[in-house]
Design goal:
heterodimer; A: alpha/beta; Rossmann fold; globular; B: five-stranded mixed β-sheet; 17 helices; 19% strand
Chain lengths: 128, 570
């Protein structure tokens, strides 16, 4: 049986390797192809070079620009502006949610992620 | 008596001495010789009289002496009675006569100058104890008078006065005022008419008292022989000197008045006794009024000063109050600002802490779940049990962190209620499926019933969902076998939600503490299960924030029913 992620490429942006690895393992189990970036700047380059189907964007990045700024810049580049960006963050403040949506994020997933729910949420965003 | 007379005679002598010493102006120096002037003298002390030495002292002689000194007159007194004197003046046997009251009749016979010398009036005197108090009382009485006096025969004299009141009496006419008094004092007359000057001077000596009968005020003049060659010069000199004497308060005129009458000059205008008494009365009254006015004025001034001070004090107090009020407001503003700042810091801190706590939990929960689900390879039953324990506890820790955050937000007033009308199915659809799964995993049955009239619900969707999650989650958690049921209905304009379980129940003494912060039922009571967390406390807040209420009915060992209401849209 073909997994739901087969043929789909996801760019995981997170400054912490352990977080990227968790998402990589989880998503690969569901058949997704994964590319990763540890900074916002790298994510913008990667988006243009890899053309992922979806970007999972951690909002707090310790070096360089943060996820909000990276999303704003991505939206300004026509070639990648249409790629859905899902914000992932441990923050629960309504202000952060608002800022994420204002910057152009298509969705918002809270950490800690629910492993049972997570693959379904990703599939939903891709299906839109 | 002798020394008195000597003393009385001293003044003219002094005047003469002064005149001799002083450079003599005008006529005297120029003339070189003296002008003989004959002056009539009758007995009317203290105005004029003849003393034992044959000199004629008195008030009038003082004035005569002064003018004589100034004008170089050589004065010769010609003694006689009043009537004799007036007769002599008319015939030119004397040149001038003092103490003559002006009347039109006399003005036809004698020459009067312009300036009067003295003002007098007449009075009626009686023995002490007499019943005579008014003109009417003189009816049928004997009245002693000075024969030929203007106060007897003249206009407004006693005779005219009595006639005016139609009073008839006998007149005892005598030659002098002294005789008038003698007649009254001796009982030969009932009353006597004298000039006020004579009366004041002599009444006490002879034991007579004045009556209120006062009449005929008169201006007294020097009178001169009409038509005589000397008269114009004498009149002119007399007028000139009398005028200047009266104008100078320190003159011989006033000195003499004080000396002979022991009184201040009455001056030119006639002042009857009743006027004087009235004046004194008025003066006393005026003094009283002035004193009263002064006292009042003083009191008003003092009171005004007090009030002014009081106003100033109050104004100052008001200003101080206003200042301290401003200061308080400033303090409140400052403290509010500080509190708001502290609150922002606290919220920021909580947000940061929440983020920091969730980040490691992401890895703990995520990796545990990966292993638990066998994604990292096969795990043994024991390992799986251990991993499940790690997983359950980390999930519980996450829910505690979430609850704490919610509670902090509630306490900080950060939660806003956003009410709207939702289809009831919206809410149920998002709650029931996950709860069904939870119940199924424990072998419990979860059912729900909705009354037909509940189509929509007017509520804050997220908070209502959270309350339902909490109540259903607790029910599943604390129920080992049996069922969990959600019933939704309407009652008294409220939506009513009830979650009923067949769990362990709650002891009555614990029920009151269930919804209170930090006072949850201890774990031992709850059959070794986890505590309720802060869920009920938060649920109570969310329900009450929406205008509803929450309560529980429970039978230990049989189960519990948690219910809450939400008001319908108004």
């Amino acid at each position: 049986m073909e997994k739901e992620g087969t043929g789909k490429k996801i760019l995981v942006v997170d400054d912490k390797e352990e977080n990227r690895r968790l998402l990589r393992k989880l998503l690969m189990l569901h058949g997704y192809g994964i590319v990763e970036a540890a900074t916002g700047e790298a994510a913008i380059e990667m988006a243009q070079s890899e053309h992922p189907d979806l970007i999972l964007m951690d909002l707090r990045l310790r070096e360089g620009i943060d996820g909000i700024e990276a999303t704003i810049r991505l939206r300004a580049i026509p070639a990648v502006a249409g790629i859905p960006v899902i914000a992932i963050t441990a923050s629960v403040s309504p202000e952060d949610v608002q800022r994420a949506l204002d910057s152009g994020c298509n969705g918002f997933i809270r950490k800690p992620i629910d492993i049972d729910e997570f693959p379904g949420q990703i599939a939903q965003y891709l299906a839109r | 008596m002798l020394s008195g007379t000597m003393k009385r005679g001293l003044l003219p002598v002094l005047c003469l001495l002064l005149l001799l010493c002083a450079p003599v102006p005008g006529a005297v120096a120029a003339a070189g010789n003296s002008l003989p002037v004959r002056v009539g003298a009758y007995e009317n002390p203290p105005k004029l009289f003849t003393n034992d030495e044959g000199d004629v002292p008195g008030f009038w002689p003082d004035i005569v002496a002064y003018i004589a000194g100034q004008e170089g007159w050589e004065v010769e007194y010609v003694p006689g009675t009043w009537t004799e004197c007036l007769e002599r003046l008319k015939n030119g046997e004397i040149d001038m006569m003092p103490d003559v009251a002006y009347t039109a009749e006399r003005a036809a016979m004698y020459q009067f100058p312009t300036e009067s010398v003295y003002t007098s009036w007449s009075m009626v005197y009686v023995q002490e104890g007499s019943t005579v108090q008014s003109v009417l009382d003189l009816e049928g009485k004997t009245v002693a008078v000075l024969k030929g006096s203007v106060n007897v025969e003249g206009p407004s004299g006693i005779k005219e006065l009595l006639a005016a009141f139609n009073v008839n009496c006998l007149f005892d006419e005598v030659g002098s005022y002294d005789e008038v008094f003698a007649q009254v004092a001796g009982g030969d007359a009932d009353a006597g008419v004298v000039s006020k000057d004579h009366g004041y001077q002599r009444s006490a000596e002879v034991g007579l008292v004045e009556t209120p009968i006062v009449f005929q005020p008169s201006q007294l003049y020097f009178a001169f022989t009409k038509g005589a060659g000397l008269t114009p010069a004498l009149v002119a000199a007399t007028d000139r000197h009398v005028k200047s004497l009266k104008a100078d308060h320190d003159s011989v005129y006033y000195e003499s008045l004080r000396h002979w009458f022991a009184q201040e000059p009455v001056g030119q205008p006639f002042v009857p006794r009743w006027v004087a008494w009235t004046s004194i009365g008025i003066l006393v009254l005026a003094l009283f009024l002035a004193a009263g006015s002064f006292v009042l004025q003083h009191q008003v001034t003092a009171r005004t000063r007090e009030l002014t001070l009081e106003i100033a004090r109050r104004r100052q107090a008001e200003e101080e109050l206003s200042r301290s009020h401003d200061h308080l407001e400033e303090l409140v503003r400052q403290r509010t600002g500080e509190l708001e700042e502290a609150n922002r810091h606290k919220s920021q801190f909580l947000a940061n802490m929440s983020h920091e706590l969730r980040t490691p939990l992401n890895s703990i929960i995520g990796y545990t779940k990966l292993m638990l689900d066998g994604m990292e390879g096969e795990v043994t039953t024991d390992q799986k049990e251990d991993l499940q324990t790690v997983y359950d506890n980390s999930k519980h820790l996450l829910s505690l962190i979430n609850d704490l955050l919610d509670l902090s937000k509630i306490e900080a007033g950060k939660f806003e209620i956003v009410k709207d009308e939702y289809p009831f199915s919206d809410i149920v659809a998002q709650v029931i499926p996950s709860m069904e799964k939870l119940a199924r995993d424990k072998g419990l049955e979860l059912t729900y019933t909705v009354a037909p009239e509940v189509v929509t619900v007017y509520a804050d969707k997220n908070k209502t969902k959270q309350v339902l999650f909490n109540l259903l989650g607790n029910a599943v958690k604390f129920t080992q076998k049996g069922s969990v049921r959600l019933d939704v209905g309407k009652r008294d304009g409220d939506y009513i939600f009830s979650v009923t379980d067949t769990g362990i129940g709650i002891a009555p003494q614990d029920i009151g503490r269930l919804f209170e912060s930090y006072k949850q039922v201890g774990p031992a009571r709850l059959d070794g299960s986890e505590g309720t967390g802060l869920g009920l406390v938060i649920s109570k807040q969310f329900v009450e924030m929406q205008g509803g209420r929450i309560w529980v009915e429970s039978t230990p060992g049989k189960g519990s029913t948690f219910s809450f209401t939400l008001p319908e849209k108004k």
